[in-house]
Amino acid sequence: METKNKRSTFSGQLGYVMAVAGSAVGLGNIWRFPYLAAKYGGGIFLLTYFILAVTFGFALLISETSLGRKTKKSPIAAYKKLGAKKLRIGGWLNAIVPMLIVPYYCVVGGWVCKYLFEYIKNNAANLVSNNYFSNFSSSSIQPVLWLIVFAILVFVVVLLGVEKGVEKCSKILMPALIIMAIFIAGYTLFTPGAIEGAKYYLIPDFSRFSIMTVVAAMGQMFYSLSIGMGILFTYGSYMKKEIDMERSITQVEIMDTVVAFLAGLMIVPAVFAFSNGDPNTLNAGPSLMFITLPNVFNSMALGNIIGIVFFLLVLFAALTSAISLMECCVSIIQDRFDLSRKKCCTIILAGILILGIPCSLGFGVLDFIKPLGLSILDFFDFMTNSIMMPISAICTCLLIIKVTGFKTVINEVEISSKFKRKKAYLFCMKYIVVPGLIIILLSSILSTIGIISI
């Protein structure tokens, strides 16, 4: 365990890549990406997403990571060290976001634990009964207990430290996750009727391409890559100077995109086979994962085994993301108050329970609390994902453009290697990224209040 005042580090490039990829690969890859890909033209959405990831996404990833490595600080301290007096709100937003996300993320992580437990007990038939998920999620006791179980799992890993906890866990869980995704995708494709779903998912349909395809792909890419939530600053601060930053970021992009692609290949053909080719059956969010897919698995041969493997995969994805969120919170508190890792972890665990329990009960005894007409969990999700994260990312861009200059980022990248995509980075930062972030901010708000549909 790290001693007080000593900055943690990843052991090398592999540890960094696995940890950041683990942060990027989360529930959104599994329960939202397949839905968006199927809705917005299949292969054309995949191509749009990939182009945005290696341009728009790359520019933001390299920016936050380089500032973190240069300052060796988490967001608040990094902004301060870089002299961003007027933009300091960006550092605070980067710090507040993970502290608000990790509690409700642990609520959903608890739901995943519950479903995995039921599949292991061979209770798959119960999961497909009418209203099972709504009855479970509105309960006052079980969801809270599973929230605590998931939160303790995350707490233990983060308590072990960066190298022995976060890095080691990511090195185990990420390869396992990819292997399981390949297994389920391969098995699904042999299900009768699944090939039609695979065609719907993979073959470009230009009739479904529109400006909303770009907006949806941009938003999904932004939320998937852990941008604007302090994690990239924090993990960048743990990166050794000799690690090739550009290559590492490229590998993270590839892993995140591959997992999202495999998630679509798992889910879209399976839902098509189950629904006899009805694309309207495919939905997004908790209803896809906890209602539609259990019914799909129940209709398949060896469905219980597939259910176990799938929810184990989802648990790994949720764990790696929650671990990165909690680690970011710990780093922020350590930089701010100079406390030991054990004290920081305990404080964050208490915060998870204080905010997470109301989020859980918001579907039951506290369902009368509806800020902006949303459940408590959805309200926190709206405030962080739709508002705070795009604004914090805009602040980071302005910090580079107006305060530090592009040379700060370029010099940091070139410490370890030649910056091969320097021209593309500069073009994106000057002309694309800030307008793109404003589009993400506005479209997220308009989607939540029902003016547009994404």
Automatic annotation (TrEMBL):
**One CC-aspect GO term:** membrane
Q: Give its localization.
A: Membrane
Transmembrane intervals:
12-31, 43-63, 89-112, 141-160, 172-190, 210-233, 254-276, 296-323, 344-366, 386-410, 431-452
Fetch the Gene3D superfamilies from UniProt. Amino acid/polyamine transporter I (1.20.1740.10)
Q: Which Pfam families match?
A: SNF (PF00209)
Q: Which CDD domains match?
A: SLC6sbd_Tyt1-Like
**Protein's membrane topology:** Multi-pass membrane protein
Q: Name one GO molecular function term.
A: symporter activity
> What keywords is this UniProt entry annotated with?
Membrane, Symport, Transmembrane, Transmembrane helix, Transport
SUPFAM superfamilies assigned: SNF-like
Family, similarity comment = Belongs to the sodium:neurotransmitter symporter (SNF) (TC 2.A.22) family.
- Which PANTHER family does the annotation name? TRANSPORTER
Q: What is this protein called?
A: Transporter
